[in-house]
Structures are given as structure tokens and as C-alpha cells.
Amino acid sequence: MSALFWIPAVVVVASALWTVAASKPVYSVVALLSNFAALAVLFLSLSAEFLAMIQLIVYSGAILVLFLFVIALLSSGIAPIALGPDRLPRIVGPASFFVAIALGVVLAAVLASHAPPLPHAAALALAGPAGAPDVFGSVADFGKALFTTYLLPFEITALILMVAVIGVIVLTGNETPYVATRRHAEQTRREVREAIAREGDS
Amino acid sequence: MPLWIVVFVKSAILLFVVITAFAYAMLAERKILGWMQLRPGPNRVGPWGMLQPAADAAKLILKEDLMPRTADPLLYRLAPFISLLTAFSVYAIIPFGTSSAGVWAIGNVNAGALLLLAIMSIGIYGISLGGWASGSKYPLLGAVRSTAQMISYELAMGLSFVGVLLLAGTTSLDGIVSAQQRLWFFIPEAVAFVVYVITAIAETNRAPFDLVEAETELVAGFHTEYSGLRFGLFFIAEYVNMLTISCIASLLFLGGWDAPFGWTWLPGIAWFLLKVGAFMFFYMWLRATLPRIRYDRLMAFGWKVLLPVATLNVIVTAVVIALRS
């Protein structure tokens, strides 16, 4: 049990650091990939199996692949970013330090106020593999919670995502190559018509 | 016997079986392609060319291992292993049969179908990173194409799983097979089955969706720069992925180890392997028959046809199940 916690935990922290510190963006992607995988193992050890699977399918399998896609397209060729690293504004160092401390305080306060009893992990350890089939964190359990207790937050999240998608279309969709070509053609035609009209006048 | 010894022995046996299956699937493909094109296929090494895989392996091992000067050494070496690792790790949870003692599998996972999707979706990193790390233009184009293609088709594939999961009422692969005792799911879920077959071929980058390694445009796509055993690893991963896809088709849609028409004179595992073999033959038949599809059509087909059809199928299935209960 403790090995099952400590190994992924160390991997999670180390790969998170590597993600930030890596010199090439693609290395960051690889580090983040190992981070997600280790996080999925941690979820599993909390017997949140559905969350673990979704972590892998959605984050590793879809979102991170898109990161890699963009990075591969932008930094094609192997040369690392040619420009030297920009100096960050001097305020960033102390600011991030304070944010980290604040986060730590909040986390400690939460843990101290109602320390999660982890009923489930303890029960699992007691019951052992031969114990009663366990539903906590299973797909059915997760789905039931999502569609009954947490229906409103779930629907609101869906709505927000929908708004984001529409926003993307509004921001980029006007200038698809097709629309651009159409507009260009339209403009050319108008210019030609005007030119003909002017020629006709003179 | 302690659990870890059982798991270790099972894994070793399975590794051997899968690698052998890969070797002969490759030989079978070359033979079948040969016969379909009216030529004998490999027939020099051993009787009927049966030792050809061994000869190929020896050739690949002895070849020089080249790396372009522009390549990223770490990722260039890592990429084939990611491909191979994800291809093999799927077999940790695939059940091959059932007996009174339990299910024939290394691990019988509750969320088996989801874990399959999860592991397969990571397999793309091998191709993607390999193409990028080669530091050369054709592999990069192949990798970018494969990334776009796999993301697009993975969605429809996941949705085609959902219909089956709804009907079976479980995500455990063992449970899905036992839910098909009365009726194999490719009949009530015919739409999902068709979507699955199409997306599965696209996921494994096989003809007619092999734009990732379209010879006429991209030399050999993402593995252009790879040689020797590193190329061999990609090659093994591709065939093992084909086997995986065939196993999943058999488990989710074709009743797994369930015997058709009550013909139980063959053991369940034999039926399972027969179904996998039939699906593999289908793959090779397609490759010999269909020309490669154009890239923009591939993307349009994935997003504008397969995804809506798969979504509609999920909705219809859910409505029917809700009305029946």
C-alpha cells in the first residue's frame, strides 16, 4: 500500500517539476504524460477507478495529444526556441512565493479542519480482496452521483463548455479559408465592376 | 501460490503467445496479399516460408541502427518503446476465455473496457513523438497526420463502445461477454459495430486509412528514419495493435468465447481465437482491396459522418433501454 502511494507520488512531483523546467516544450509534454499516468495510479489507490480511467482517456489521450500536435507544428525542426529566455518581471519571484505559501496555508487548514477519514481505503484494507464487491468510485456509482446529487453542477459545466466552443467558433470561424476566399472573390468582382463603370464614363 | 508468481507466469506465457501470433500474422498477411495478387508470397525460408519471420527478425537485429544528426536522441530512442509498451500492456486485461476456476486473464478489471480505451489512446505518443524526434520533414508530417487522425477517430470509437456498455450494463469485459449469451451485440448494435470496424482500422493506421505512412507522399511516414530493431519495434507494435483490435471486436461485438448455435464441441478459447483470426483476415483483405482514402475526405468522414452516427446510436440505444425497463 505505501509503495503504491509513494512511488506514484514521487513520480507525480518529479514529473511536474520536469514539466516546468524542461528546456524543450516536447519534453514538457512527455513529463506531463508521466505525471498524468502516475496521477491515475494515485486515483486507483483511492479506488476512484472511473476517475483514473477518465484521467487517462481525456487528459493523456486527448488534451495532451493536442498539446503535442500544436508543439510539433509550431516548433517543427529540432532547434529549441532560438530566442534566449525572456527575463521575467522581477515581481514574479516573490509573488509566486507568496501564492505558494497561501496555497499551503489553505491546504493545511482544510486538512486540519476535517481530515478526510478515508473510510474507503481503510475498509478496503480490512475487507481485503475477498471482501464484499465494492461500488465506491465505480462507473455506476460515479454516474449515479453525477446525474442525481450533482446534476446541476454537471449541467452548468456542460453549458460553460458549450459557450467556450461557440466562443472559439466566433473568434476563429469567420476567417476559414472558404469564407476568406469567398470574400476576396466578392471584392475582386466589385472592383472589376467599378472599373468597368468608370471606363464607361470616360 | 502467491499472486505475483501467477501473474508473472501468465504474463510470460502471454508475451510468448502474442509475439508468436505477431510473427505469423505478418507472414499470413504477406501470403494472403500474395494470393490475392496472384503471386506465391514468401516461400523460400523453410517449408511454405514458415521460417520467414525468424529470418526477418535476424535481418532486423543485425542491421545498423541509424539516427539522423538532427534527431532528438532521447525521444528518438524512447518512442518505439512507448508504442510497444502500450501495445503489449493491453493484454494484461484482455480475457481469453472462462472456466469454472475463473476468467482466463492476467487481471480481470471492473472498468476493463474503459482501461482498454485509456491504454490505446496513449499508444499514439509512440508514433507522434517518433515522428517529431526524427528531426526530418516526412516523419514530422506523418506524425502530425496520425495525431489528427487518431484524435478524430478515437471519439467515434469511444462512442461505439458506449452502446455496448449500455446494453451490457457493465464495463467489465468478462461481464460484457456473458451479457451476450443470448444475442451477440453486433446484431442489436449493428451501427456501433460498423463504426467500430471503421474507426478501428483508422486507429491502427492500416489501409485504407494508412495516410500516416503513405508511401507515395511521405516515404514511410513517421518511421522513415528508423532502421534495424527500432523500426522492428514499431512494426511489432502495429501488428500487436491489430491483434488487440481484433480481440476487442470479438469481446464486445462477436460474443467473445461464446460458441455460436450452441456448437460447444470446440472449447471457448478456440472460438475466441477463430473470431480474432477472422477479423485479422478481414484487415488483410481490406488492404488488398481498397485504395487509400484522401486525407481531407478522411477527416471530413470522421467528423461529419462517423461521429454524428455514433452519437445518434448512443442516444437511440439509451432511449430504447430506458423505454424497455
Structure commentary:
The complex is a heterodimer of chains A (202) and B (325). With 202 residues, chain A is an all-alpha fold. Chain A has helices at 2-21, 25-45, 49-74, 92-113, 119-127, 139-147, 151-172, 177-201. Chain A is built from eight helices and no strands. Residues 125-133 of chain A have low confidence and may be disordered. Chain B is mostly helical. Chain B has one domain (3-324). Chain B has helices at residues 3-36, 52-62, 73-89, 112-122, 124-133, 137-168, 173-178, 190-203, 215-218, 228-252, 268-289, 295-324; strands at residues 98-99, 102-103. Classes of the chains: A mainly alpha (202), B mainly alpha (325).
Task: Jot down its keywords.
heterodimer, A: 202 residues, mainly alpha, Four Helix Bundle (Hemerythrin (Met), subunit A), 8 helices, elongated, B: 325 residues, two-stranded antiparallel ribbon, 12 helices, 2 strands, globular
Assembly classification: heterodimer
- Trace the largest sheet of chain B across and list its strands: 1-2
- What fraction of the residues of chain B are assigned to beta strands by DSSP? under 5%
Order of H and E elements of chain A:
HHHHHHHH
Give the number of helices of chain B: 12
N-C termini distance of chain A: 92 Å
The largest pleated sheet of chain B is described as:
2 strands, antiparallel
Q: What is the alpha-carbon Rg of chain B in Å?
A: 20 Å
Mean pLDDT of chain B: 84
Layout of helices and strands:
The complex is a heterodimer of chains A (202) and B (325).
Chain A: H1 2-21, H2 25-45, H3 49-74, H4 92-113, H5 119-127, H6 139-147, H7 151-172, H8 177-201
Helix pairs in contact in A: 1-2, 2-3
Chain B: H1 3-36, H2 52-62, H3 73-89, E1 98-99, E2 102-103, H4 112-122, H5 124-133, H6 137-168, H7 173-178, H8 190-203, H9 215-218, H10 228-252, H11 268-289, H12 295-324
Antiparallel strand pairs in B: 1-2
Helix pairs in contact in B: 1-10, 1-11, 2-10, 3-5, 3-10, 5-6, 6-8, 6-12, 8-12, 10-11
